[in-house]
Structures are given as C-alpha cells and as structure tokens.
Amino acid sequence: MTAAPTSGPSLTGRLLSLLRGREILLALAVVILLNAIFTPNFATWRNVEITLIQMVFVALVATGMTLVIATGGIDLSVGAVMGLASVVAVALLPYGIFAVTLGCLTAGLAVGLFNGVLIVGFGVQPLLVTLGSLIWVRGLAQYLSGGRKEYFEDAAMRFLGTGRLWGLPLQVIIAALVVLVVAIVAAHTVFGRRLVAVGGNPAAARLAGVPAGRTVLVAYALCGLLAGLAGLFITARVGSSDPTNFGVLIELDAIAAAVVGGTVLAGGRARVMGAAVGALLLQLTTAAMIMNNIGFAVALVLKAALILCVVALQRGRA
Amino acid sequence: MEQATIARLSGIEKRFDGVLALADVDFDLRAGEVHALLGENGAGKSTLIKILTGVYQPDSGRIEVGGTATTFRNPAEAQAAGIATIHQEIHLVPTLDAVANLHLGREPRRPWGLVDHRRMRREAAAMLARYGADVDLDRPVGELGVAVQQQIAIVRALSLGGRVLVMDEPTSALTHREVEHLLSITERLRDDGIGIVYITHRLDEVFRLADRVTVLRDGRRVLTEPAHGMDRPRLVGAMLGRPDTGDARRNPTQVGAALTVLSARVLAREPRVTGASLDLGQGTILGLAGLQGSGRTELMRLLFGADRPTSGTVLLNGAPGPRSPVEALARGLAYLPEDRKADGIVPDLSVRENLSLILLPRLTRWGFIRRSRERAEVSRFMDRLGVRAASPETRIRDLSGGNQQKVLIARLLCTAPRALLLDDPMRGIDVGAKADIARLIADLAEQGMAVLLTSSELGELAALSDRVTILRDGRTLGTLSGSDVTFAGLAEAIAADDPAEAA
C-alpha cells in the first residue's frame, strides 16, 4: 500500500510564508497604496524625489544605528554629532570641501570611538555612555560656535547640498551607495557575521574566538562616522551650521527605522536594508499626513501607532 | 520517636515541551530534619523544588502540606502554606538596610498610616538574634557580604511563618568560615523543628548535616535513605549513573608513548580552582572526574585561556598556555562549553552561521565570506557528524539538544584542532546522539587528537577515558589508569575522605 500524497501548503500559506520576515514591505505597500489613492499629487516624480531627499539624514543615521543595535547596544549621541559636524564644517570651510568632509567624518568617528571605548573598555552601559555623549557633544558644538548659526556661501558645499548627478539629487545617490555598502558589509563579511554573533550571545561568541570588544568598538565608530556624514549633508543642504537644532531627536527616528526594519533591540540581528526601508516608511507616513492636512501633532501619534503595528507583526512570528 | 511528616510530594510528573523532567518522584520531609536533595545538573532537583515552592505546577501527582492535599498556583500560595525558600542568588533589596528588608511589604504602621520605625527595628533585632544571625542593622545589606545577606534572607523567609525551608546550594558562594556559620544556623533551625530541604553538591556538608538523603537522576528518584552510616562511593555512584551503562570500554591507547600536548601545574584561580595539575597526551582521552562544583568547568576555562589563572602554569605544545580563546584556537586548542545554551549556541543564527563561526576568517577573500566554500564546509561537517536539521539555514534554536551539540562540536572540528576540551559533551541529549558523540570522541583519539573530557555520568567517563584525573574542590587528587578506570574505581576515588587515598 502506498502512502497518500501529502498535500503541499495552501496558496495563502505560501503567500504568508513569502511575507514572513518582510512584514515591513507589506506595510510599505499599504502606505503607498493608501497615499496613491487619497493624497493629491502623491504619485508624481517630484514627490518621490522630495521624499527621498527628506529621508537622507535619517537613513544614514539609521544605517549606523542598525550596526550598534545589532550588538545589543544603542547610540543616542548621533543627533549631537550632526550638530558638532556642522560647526566643524563651517570652521574648515576656508580649507576647501575636502578638509570639510574629512573634518566632519573625523568628528563623528572620534565621538563613536569615545562611546565604544567606554562601553567596551570600561563596561559602562551603552544607554548611559551615549546619553552622556548626547549632552557633552551638543555642549561642545555650542561652545565652539558660541551657540550661533553661521551662514555661508560656497559653491562646492551648495553642490553637495542640492546638486544633482545623472538627474538625481547627489545626496540621495551617496546615501543610497552608503546604505548599500554597509548592507553588503553586514551580510557578507566576517565583521558582519561577528556583529550578530556578539549581539546574539556574547559569551558564546567570545569562546568561539570572536574578538567581541573590537567588533562592538567598530560598530560604534561606524555609527559615529555615519552621523558625521549626516551632519555634513544637513549643513550643505541648509547652507549654515546649527549647533543647537541639527539632528535634534533624530536618534529616535533612527531607532524606530531600525526596529521597524526588523533589527531587534535585544541584538543579534542586523537588517541594514530593512532600516532604510523603515526610514522610507516613516517619511512617507509623516509626509502623507501633512499633505492631507492632518496636523503634525496627530501625525506623531499615528506614526507611533504605525511603529507599534509593524513591531507587533514581527513579534507575532518568533 | 520519628517526627511527623510536614510535606510530602508523591508521584510527581512534569514535562516541558513533551520532554520528561520528572517521572513519578516521591519526596517527603519531616519536621526537624535536614533532608539533602542530590543529583547532577539536569537531574530534576530544581524542577522538584520549583514544584514544592509553587513556581511550577506538576502534570500529575500529589502535594501534601501538614497532612492535607494542596495545590500551589503560584509561589505566594506556597509561601502562605509555610514553605520558605533561600535561593543561590539572594533576593533582597541591596540599597535598604536589614530592618527594612526584613519587613519589606509588611511594614508595621502607626494608627495614622506612617511606618512604625521603632517597632520595626525592635522586631528585626529580635528575629535575627533568635537564629544567631549577627547583622549590622544600619548599613545597606548590599554592603554586608554574601553570608550576612543570606542570614537575613533566611530570617525573612522564616518570619513569614515558614515551617519548611528550602535551601538551594546555600554554600556555593561562601568562604570556609562562612559555611561553618551557616551550617550551625541550619542546625539551630532544625532543632527548632523546621523541616529543611538542603540542596548541595558538597558531600561533606551532606554527611555533616543531613538526616536523610534523596538522590535524583534523569528525573527519577534513585534512592532515599538515612544519611547516617551511608557509603560514600555508593552515594556518588547513585548521582553519577549506573555502573552497567553497557558501553564497551574502548581499547586504551598505549599510554606513555604519547607526546604531551597540554599540561597544567598547580593551576589556581580562587575560589573554584585551587591547585590542579594534569597531563594530556596526543591520541589519548584524559577524563576529568569530579562532582558538579568541583571546578571542572572553571579548570577547562583556565586551560583554554578564557579566564586568567592567579597562579600555576599551563603548557601548550611546550609553550606557555593561551592568554585568550582567540590565541587558544589559533594554536589548535578548542573548547566545548558545558552550558550549551549560555556559552555555546547563538540561538537566532542558523546552523550554518553557528557551525562556521570559528572557521569564518579562513573562508574569506578580501574580507568577504566565500559563500560557496562556507556552504561546502558546513555540509561536509553536518554529514560527518550526522546533524539532523531541515536545512543548514534552520535556526539552531529549533534543533534538538543532541543536534545542537553536534553542530557545536562540528564548529570546533572544522578548524582541525590538535587538542579538544570537551566539557560534559553528552549532557542533556538523547541516547542516540550520546552514542554518536561517544563514538566520535573515540575515533578522534584514534586519529591522534588529544581529548580532555568531563562527564556528569561516571560510566561514560570510565568507558571512554584512557586515564582519569580526579578533581575535588578545585584540586586534582591524582590520576587513575589501566584497570582502575572503572565506574566503581572512579566513584571510590571521588568519594574518598582522605585525598591521599586517591593518589
């Protein structure tokens, strides 16, 4: 006697399993669809461009944040780093765009290394260390600049801020490349694998010969570096430094983007592309509500609801 | 005259996810006795205790307290029935003083609702004095040291009206003198008529304190007997497994000719390792026998470079021992941790990612992982160890314990090490996987691997090892070889009163 053939999974079952781990894409599709129907002028190239331009900063910061969260940590100092980078940028402007870029990246890297050394070398909790950095870095930026915004006129900076390449905004192209490179690093290098091993089980990773401390340190350094880049971009875009307002509360958007993108706060998973999509989702939601004349205050509440929904969806499987 | 039974568990059965943790276990406790509960990790001690204290509910069986059948839906109900517990970790608020901790949650009030501090202090002092606990009332308990905190916890537990006190490895974090004090407090409690369930790994405490002994193994009760006049080797034997495991003893490698790969001389890291010496030869299996808490795991970590010794020396291939796991692995020494879940697997990563974790740097080109080579290595070693998983991409947490263990062993073997430290590799896995791993270890030694092995089953250790070094309280007591390496021989050596006997 032959066994009855076991029936394959149903079509809906297969569709569901295809979506598993990609709940965020479902959410994105829903948001785009709703927008296309209800928001006037949503489905225009112009609007797509605006959306992408507006999400550049959050996407860059969220990319670094994802690496840090993957280790089970957090970095609250990213917004302050943007403020500091803007001050550094203006100070170095007389020496040319190359010096400005190098200065911003160095400032970010330095803060990131500072965070990493305290966390790895002295065992201080990431939340405390980076909360402290949030305060002192913002303070340093204000001290160095006397708390003033400085406006500037500079052709190279204007190009970096609002220029276009191949018909696309330059910042969008660079940010996309950065996200892509970091995503590839996270998924295909030894460093990326070690990152999630350390985040998933630090004790096991150490016993398996993973240089856990160095791995975590590099994650914070990269996070700081990318925040420095975001600081350079916002300075170039606005055409002034702003030690007080640049990057304020961006750490929360970045954390939200990373978590919505499938990176777990407890660590052990790094979804860089997910974070970028998460940033896009948050940006679309906010923009849509504003374009539909839903007040900014209400938009905040709805945004929070969306974040909770996506996270709940992800927790549903496990 | 025999004291009345104050608590009785009968026919207790408990499963977790279908896995049997306790099968038909009986346990009873009389007023005014110390009843020692013994067994290796995973034997079911803590499950049984958690059932007695209301943390878990049994799937079947009866709980009687004071002669009436009861059920505990939560720890509070067990506490209300007079069952108090002292855990290994002390549950006090470290920033509050002893007075506040003793009254926490039931502070005496003055008529208008304020806390009556004077009365609190008076009562606290009286309670502590009654059990001979010597405590500074004015300092936060976090500053007082483990032993004193423990005394406060005991007094607090009993002041709730407890007639049953469960003490879960109370001496594991204490110094020798503090142990003495705790034992005398325990004796005083017993003389007061309190029934005490005492969990420990230290046989000396059992024979000093216990009136009766119950041994659990693999979720079953092996024996319950009066402690007085009990044969020590028999007790060790009951804890560490049946003498007739049925495993054929492997043919020992010709000892003596073997080149020494790893050796240790009076290695120490207080308090767990106090003086350990051993020699591990190429192509041999050296067993490390001792009870839980004898320092097996801590010694292996020292050898591997995961912890730094405070004194003593390690030699690996004639050079000073590794100073870190990274260095140990680079020099061909690999370590399988005892606690698979805490120190072994990265639960959310796939079988592939877990297996290749150590090898990974050797599978790259310009820092990028060569996926095809990784997949090839992973599937080669999954085949070689017989790992059963739906695919290499399955999360390792979804595998059975035995298959997880095989992946972890594969993680070590794919780096082609020369020496292996295997810390209880067959613990908590099914019979089939056990046999597979035992065969693998024997094969590896045959092919020249040096293996240092521990096991919580003495029979397995005897069957696999060429020689066995005996470890007790962090000190090696000597090495048995040849026809002395038998279940009975090992049990006797571990249980020996005088260290000289084992030499």
Tell me briefly what this model is.
With 318 residues, chain A is mostly helical. Chain A has one domain (43-316): ABC transporter involved in vitamin B12 uptake, BtuC (Orthogonal Bundle).
How would you describe the overall organization of this protein?
Chain A is mainly α and 318 residues long. Chain A is built from 14 helices and two strands; from the N terminus they run αααααααββααααααα. Chain A has a two-stranded antiparallel sheet. Chain A is globular. Mean pLDDT of chain A is 87; it is low at 1-8. Chain B has three domains: 5-240, Rossmann fold, CATH 3.40.50.300; 246-332 and 417-503, P-loop containing nucleotide triphosphate hydrolases (Rossmann fold); 341-415, no CATH class. The two termini of chain B are 43 Å apart. The model of chain B is unreliable at 499-503 (pLDDT under 50). Chains A and B meet through helix 9 and helix 10 of A and helix 10, helix 11 and strand 18 of B.
